[in-house]
């Protein structure tokens, strides 16, 4: 890898919630690191000076919940295509879930993922390892070995840890390493056979529903276990009003609980399923307008700490079929920021710095990874956003190998136009060229 | 004319379209009373009965309706079709489509399956029952039967008893009757009520006697033990029969002009006692007759211009 030219991002609005910066300034990147943020920076001849007037310069976005499908389901996504989608969406760090085939339940798989990501070189990938061997909900995986190999947290995501005693042991054991347990909260005996949210739309469509209680009972259970064990707990993909309330109460109590939600839970409701639209099928399912509002309030008051996409690629094979048979999940890396801008900033009046915090500093803090801020001296993971740039989401425009998005055809305002990883341009719509070196 | 070229559900029809279908069915019924019951309007047309679930009565009714209109029919049952070989539903539909049928009548165990097919074929698709979603031709024949009796549907009280949550007949009936101005009450064990009855247009009354008190129409649904799964939704048939079965004791309290309906086949002694099923108020066999007329009407409306109607 040759040393990249210095980059000067000129006269953009620099937003870094961690440093509490929100000013129009220049930002200089040299030797892969952030050199300086100042009103005016003079640059040398060989500097790549990029005009960022009217744009936002923010820390590289962090997505703590992604499914990359490799190894095992490369026809849906590979680490390479997933990383390209991440870069195009403005993400410089992503955490990938262990439900691959084979699952990431041993250090060989963890090392493989890290090695493949390093070869691709356009996004940092942090593997989340399985809590239990084979994600079967029984025996714990080798936490020490997995952490040594590079895993950064543990989750059986895709599946819940069904047995509360196993979850208790996992939380207790996590304390030895001060590591994080991420809970996919779902009470299977209530959700089994369900294909969408239980309620008005499921009645109308004659589909078996998944009640909100299936999620809320499981979240409450894991919060009780976190209190019992004193361990840290992170709740993945919060989708219901009741869940927000339970997490809010836990935080008030001082428990070490954090939570994330997906862009779809603050953008869509169960009505998106109408017409048996399998592109709106996911788990947890899209809920009601009341739930959507509660999710937004949870993001506003800090009950929900992070926006994470739960990027879940599936091919047409899994989606062009009977609704009951269709796979759960949607892709999200390339729509997360546009949705946050559309819904949270423009419709709901969130401060720009707040959505940046939810997509940078907060998730990197929860995971304990670098990045998430623009501190001089730090590795230069930087994203440039054009808040006015309009685009229509088409399959051709997607970098992900799969196109399972309910937002296809929607026109967005605002997107990532430049992504810099460790001082290298990995996505560039400003100078109309990709730099993949 | 109908707005859609498919009959996927009552939820896709307007009250005007429903009235139009019922009027057409009424004239079809006259054909059935003639000595020669076969008329030529659909000569040269092909109707495929694609049944992924076992069915005797509905399939027979559709077949008979097609034959009376001189259409050719082909039946494909799930066990003999290529679905078992791992072919996707869309592939199956495209293969059938390649043989150029005019109508595909489809029954499937999963809600929305006919809607999926309809997006991928040129033929008209008639939903003959999809999962726990809809069974529109059954609802239409029920409307026809009730309208024949009372001359109208508007203002009637209709009570449906049984597993409302898992019954496609109930779903279609609730929507159809309420769309036509009837007031629909549903009754049964609370474990069998839909999550949001309002979404369909029904009110729930868990007390059987209150539920049937002012009813013009009382419909009992078949208790389908095979649909119950591993978790039974009521303790025993005995208790169900005692609490929600239509017995003489219950029907003796009904309005004098009330009629008793059942989509069949009946579990005698469970949802309905034999005396009630065979009583003078029972219109169960008329429902069967009207089923053929309604299906003839649907075929005709989907395949011919309005002007050429018999
Ligand atoms: Zn999950």
Would you write up a description of this structure?
The complex is a heterodimer of chains A (437) and B (310). Chain A has 437 residues and is α/β, with parallel strands linked by helices. Chain A folds into two domains: 7-57 and 378-428, Roll (Urease, subunit C, domain 1), CATH 2.30.40; 60-367, TIM Barrel (Alpha-Beta Barrel). Chain A is built from 14 helices and 18 strands. Chain A has helices spanning 79-89, 107-120, 143-149, 164-174, 188-191, 200-205, 212-229, 241-252, 263-267, 289-300, 316-319, 336-347, 352-359, 361-367; strands at 7-16, 21-30, 33-38, 48-51, 56-59, 61-66, 91-96, 124-129, 153-155, 181-183, 196-197, 209-210, 233-235, 257-261, 306-307, 382-392, 411-421, 424-428. In chain A, the strands form three sheets. In chain A, strands 1, 2, 3, 4, 5, 16, 17 and 18 form an eight-stranded mixed sheet that branches. Chain A has an eight-stranded parallel sheet with strand order 6-7-8-9-10-13-14-15, with helices on both faces. In chain A, helix 1 links the parallel strand 6 and strand 7 (91-96). The N and C termini of chain A lie close together (7 Å). In chain A, 58% of the residues are buried. Mean pLDDT of chain A is 96; it is low at 433-437. In chain B, helix 1 crosses helix 5, helix 2 (57-68) crosses helix 11 (284-303) and helix 5 crosses helix 6 (168-179). The longest helix of chain B has 20 residues, at 284-303. Chain B has two domains: 10-133 and 288-303, Aspartate/ornithine carbamoyltransferase (Rossmann fold); 136-287, Rossmann fold, CATH 3.40.50.1370. Chain B has eleven helices and nine strands. A five-stranded parallel sheet of chain B has the order 7-6-5-8-9. Chain B has a four-stranded parallel sheet with strand order 2-1-3-4. Chain B is of the alpha/beta class. At the A-B interface, helix 6 of A face helix 4 of B. Zinc ion is lined by residues 157-158, 184, 236-237 of chain A.
């Amino acid at each position: 890898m040759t040393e990249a030219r210095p980059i000067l991002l000129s006269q953009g609005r620099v937003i870094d919630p961690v440093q509490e910066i929100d000013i129009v300034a220049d930002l200089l990147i040299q030797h892969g690191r952030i050199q300086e943020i100042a009103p005016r920076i003079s640059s040398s001849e060989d500097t790549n000076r990029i005009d960022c007037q009217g744009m936002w310069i923010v820390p590289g976005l962090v997505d703590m919940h992604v499914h990359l499908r490799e190894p095992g389901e490369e026809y849906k996504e590979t680490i390479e295509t997933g990383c390209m989608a991440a870069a195009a969406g403005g993400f410089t760090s992503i955490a990938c879930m262990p439900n691959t085939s084979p699952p990431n339940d041993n250090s060989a798989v963890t090392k493989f993922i890290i090695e493949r990501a390093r070869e691709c070189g356009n996004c940092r990938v942090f593997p989340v390892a399985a809590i239990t061997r084979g994600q079967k909900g029984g025996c714990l995986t080798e936490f020490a070995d997995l952490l040594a190999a590079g895993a950064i947290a543990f989750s059986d995501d895709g599946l819940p840890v069904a047995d509360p005693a196993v979850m208790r042991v996992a939380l207790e054991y996590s304390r030895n390493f001060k590591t994080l347990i991420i809970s996919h909260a779902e009470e299977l005996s209530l959700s089994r056979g369900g294909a969408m949210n239980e309620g008005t739309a499921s009645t109308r469509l004659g589909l078996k529903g998944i009640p909100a209680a299936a999620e809320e009972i499981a979240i409450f259970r894991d919060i009780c276990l976190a209190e019992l064990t004193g361990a840290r707990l992170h709740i993945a993909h919060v989708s219901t009003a009741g869940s927000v309330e339970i997490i809010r109460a836990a935080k008030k109590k001082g428990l070490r609980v954090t939570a994330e939600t997906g862009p779809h839970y603050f953008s869509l409701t169960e009505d998106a399923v109408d017409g048996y639209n399998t592109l709106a099928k996911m788990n947890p399912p899209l809920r009601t307008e009341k739930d959507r509002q509660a999710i937004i309030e949870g993001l506003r008051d800090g009950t929900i700490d992070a926006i994470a996409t739960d990027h879940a690629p599936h091919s047409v094979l899994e989606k062009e079929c009977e609704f009951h048979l269709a796979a759960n999940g949607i892709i999200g890396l390339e729509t997360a920021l546009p949705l946050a801008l559309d819904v949270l900033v423009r419709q709901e009046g969130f401060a720009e710095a707040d959505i940046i915090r939810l997509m940078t500093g907060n998730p990197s803090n929860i995971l304990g990874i670098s990045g998430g801020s623009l501190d001089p001296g730090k590795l230069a993971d930087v994203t440039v956003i054009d808040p006015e740039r309009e685009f229509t989401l088409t399959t051709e425009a997607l970098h992900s190998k799969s196109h399972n998005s309910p937002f296809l055809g929607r026109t967005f305002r605002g997107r990532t136009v430049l992504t810099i990883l460790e001082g290298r341009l990995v996505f560039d719509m400003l100078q109309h060229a990709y730099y993949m070196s | 004319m109908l707005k859609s070229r498919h009959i996927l559900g009552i939820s896709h029809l307007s009250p005007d379209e429903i009235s139009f279908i019922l009027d057409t069915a009424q004239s079809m019924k006259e054909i059935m009373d003639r000595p020669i019951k076969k008329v030529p309007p659909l000569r040269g047309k092909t109707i495929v009965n694609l049944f992924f679930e076992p069915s005797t009565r509905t399939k027979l009714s559709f077949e008979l309706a097609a034959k009376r209109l001189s259409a050719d029919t082909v039946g494909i049952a799930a066990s003999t079709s290529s679905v078992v070989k791992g072919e996707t539903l869309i592939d199956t539909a495209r293969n059938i489509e390649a043989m150029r049928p005019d109508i595909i009548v489809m029954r499937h165990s999963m809600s929305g399956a006919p809607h999926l097919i309809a997006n991928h074929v040129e033929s008209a698709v008639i939903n003959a029952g999809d999962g726990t979603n809809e069974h529109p031709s059954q609802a239409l024949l029920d409307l026809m039967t009730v309208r024949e009796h009372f001359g109208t549907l508007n203002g009637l009280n209709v009570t449906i008893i049984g597993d409302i949550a898992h019954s496609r007949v109930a779903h279609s009936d609730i929507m159809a009757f309420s769309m036509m101005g009837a007031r629909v009450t549903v009754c049964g064990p609370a474990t069998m009520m839909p999550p949001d009855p309002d979404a369909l247009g029904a009110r729930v009354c868990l007390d059987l006697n209150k539920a049937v008190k002012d009813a013009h129409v009382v419909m009992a649904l078949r208790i389908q033990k095979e649909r119950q799964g591993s978790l039974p939704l009521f303790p025993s048939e005995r208790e169900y029969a005692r609490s929600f079965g239509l017995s003489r004791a219950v029907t003796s309290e009904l309005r004098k002009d009330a009629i008793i309906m059942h989509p069949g086949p009946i579990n005698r002694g469970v949802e309905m006692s034999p005396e009630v099923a065979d009583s003078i108020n029972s219109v169960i066999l008329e429902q069967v007759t009207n089923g053929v007329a309604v299906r003839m009407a649907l075929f005709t409306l989907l395949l011919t211009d309005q002007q050429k109607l018999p």
